[in-house]
Amino acid sequence: MSCVGRRRKPSRPNTPGHLETFRQLSAKERAKAIRLSLRESFDADELQTTWQKFQNASRRLALLTRLPLLWLIAVTPFAIVALGPLRTWPYLLGGLFASSLIVSIAFVRVHRRQLPAAADRWLHAVSMTLFPIASIRAVDRISKERVAGFNPLTVIAVFCGEDDADPLLRRCGFDLDRADAPAGEPAVASCREWYRAQKRAAFTELLKALQRNPFSEPAKSDETVALYCPRCHSQFEDGITDCADCEAVALVPFEERKRA
Ligand SMILES: [Zn+2]
Q1: Suppose 25 and one of 29, 77, 79, 147 were both cysteines; which one would form an S-S bond, judging by CB atoms 3.0 to 4.6 Å apart?
Q2: For residue 233, how far is its CA from the centre of ligand 1 (angstroms)?
């Protein structure tokens, strides 16, 4: 997957702390900061860089997480069958604790470098030492935090193949485009519409950077279909007016029918 034409920006996760920062800015500065924050959360290039750096930093931890796994699925059954449970259980339990402790120590080191401001480091370290399943998943504990600042659509677009990601990108993108102005206070409604417009623009930039178009016309499933739903790409014969899955979405005729 390629990301072209994007400039590098420093990583600045989209955390709740942003809200407090935004609140202290003037209205004009706040708009700029929100726009920048949205652009960063939709930055596929930055996500790939962040992920690559994390992969490099966590390589040793990933290898170490195999220790408790191997101890559980290979060493333990072999020792029990060969020597019996009564003679081996203290050593097996001790080995399991030791392997989890090794992972836990490596986890603390990687966590400190990757998430210096996180407060739950020692809580996870203790749970990993006591619960081998948690130590086996030590890398996941950090990786999800590393990508949490990016918009889920960016994560899906970068990490999933087009066949898996495009249906979701299309539905979410379509809903962003057609969302009506919310009812209520005019100032609040206008603020929401402004935010939605910025999000739409950031989403469009993401698709452009990835050179993806999940909205393009689908291939016909057979010759009898004449219309498709632009949101879910379900296909229909002539005479059908509504998609069974999507509410209030006008069906679109296939190109060849539009030309006829
Ligand atoms: Zn549909």
Answers
A1: 29
A2: 6
- Nearest alpha-carbon partner for 155 in 174, 172, 139: 172
Q: CA-to-CA distance for 192 and 181, rounded, in angstroms?
A: 8
Residue pair 210/6 in contact (Cβ under 8 Å)? The answer is no
| pTM for this model (two decimals) | 0.78
Q: For residue range 228-243, list pLDDT tens digits in order.
A: 999 999 999 998 989 9
AA identity, residue 173: G
CA 232 to ligand 1 center in whole angstroms: 4
Name the CA dihedral angle for 182, 184, 186, 192, rounded to a multiple of 10 degrees.
-40
- How far is CA 17 from each of CA 20, 41, 110, 174, rounded to the nearest angstrom? 5, 14, 23, 30
Write down the domain spans for the chain.
Answer: 17-43+150-210, 49-147, 225-259
Alpha carbon of 244 to ligand 1 centroid (Å): 7
The tens digit of pLDDT for each residue in 8-38 reads 444 444 555 577 888 888 888 999 999 999 9
